[in-house]
Amino acid sequence: MSAAARVRRLAVPPARAGMRGALRLRTLRWEPGSHLFVVGDGGGWSVDEDARHTAAAAARLGFRLGPPRWARFTGRQGVFHTSHFAALERPWLESDHVLGAAWLHGRPGTEGHPEFDRAFETLRRHPDRFAALQVTHEEMRELVVEAGVPADRVHRVPIGIDLEAFPCRRRGERDLARAALGLPREAFVVGSFQKDGVGWGEGLEPKRVKGPDVLLEALGRLRERVPELLVLLTGPARGFVRAGLDRLAIPHIHLVAETRSELARAYRALDAYVVASRQEGGPKAALEAMASGVPLVSTRVGQVPELAEGAAWLVDVEDADGLAEGLARAHGGDEATRAEVERGREVAERHTLELLDPLWAPVLDPLARR
């Protein structure tokens, strides 16, 4: 053990040091690589949901899973992080675990996000530290390979969907959902359910990569064409968008969806869903909207263009006019939109979580035995 490592170990608070010792004793007889830990970021949001889904895939594949909270206090096992930012922290890099991580987004040079640059530079200094990386689309695959990660360690696994949680709405269910949510039946309801403010408070500071400014611009232009527009928001930290909608005098409702069933009901109430992001790993909302039978209007970000070409209205990043045009077309309900909705449901069915298990095997196999 290096002197620095000894200092770090001595610096652990007594209670935590006791936990480390107890777990070390408990796991001392574990063979190296006999257990796999799937670790989120503790934020209680999308990254932790990714961890639950990945752990479920690992269990179906036959890996022996350890409790995520134990991972910091054990050694010589496999650890997969669903946040590459967490995986790049020094304690993990200097551990004796075999590491894997999801690298879903974070292009260096992005305005307002210096953490993207720091993460990329850290990866460039440690390209061999990860036995496997998951990416969801080609841009991120090229990015991590450029950082020096061997190409055969980089695996494209799209973000999937729990199809049972987002059933395709049937005739009449839109009106039932609106009645339950208190939404007017005659409104043209556009959904935006993605967190797009900084932090976990009101979200008055915009998170530029999520494109809340583009969203407002697109909705402002749509309102000129569709006076009955109403915007349905869910998710935390939506203060910037809510304030912007107030300035534009666009009616909106912000719901807190506590459960998946409540979120699915919100989708059923929509006439269209919009993604205005500049960068994404998914987003999950794209598949959720397609699964629910809702027209999708999106920028070409993340895995969307690779999954949804021909199943959604896609425009270039920052094209507010194009987003407004796509939403206006959904308002018209033309035959092309109806065909995209049908293809969108088919896309979602092909990306059910369980169907992606074979893609997870080469990501997780280098980390632990099964």
Structure at a glance:
The protein is 43% helix and 12% strand. With 370 residues, the protein is of the alpha/beta class.
Describe it.
The chain is of the alpha/beta class and 370 residues long. It has 16 helices and eleven strands. It has two domains: 27-160 and 354-364, Glycogen Phosphorylase B (Rossmann fold, 3-Layer(aba) Sandwich), CATH 3.40.50.2000; 163-351, Glycogen Phosphorylase B (Rossmann fold, 3-Layer(aba) Sandwich). 43% of the residues lie in helices and 12% in strands. Helix 3 links the parallel strand 1 (36-39) and strand 2 (78-81). The relative contact order is 0.13.
Summarize the SSE layout with pairings:
Blueprint: H1 3-10, H2 14-27, E1 36-39, H3 46-61, E2 78-81, H4 84-87, H5 90-93, E3 98-102, H6 114-125, E4 130-135, H7 138-146, E5 154-156, H8 173-181, E6 188-192, H9 212-225, E7 229-233, H10 239-247, E8 252-254, H11 260-268, E9 272-275, H12 284-292, E10 296-299, H13 304-308, E11 313-315, H14 320-332, H15 335-350, H16 357-364
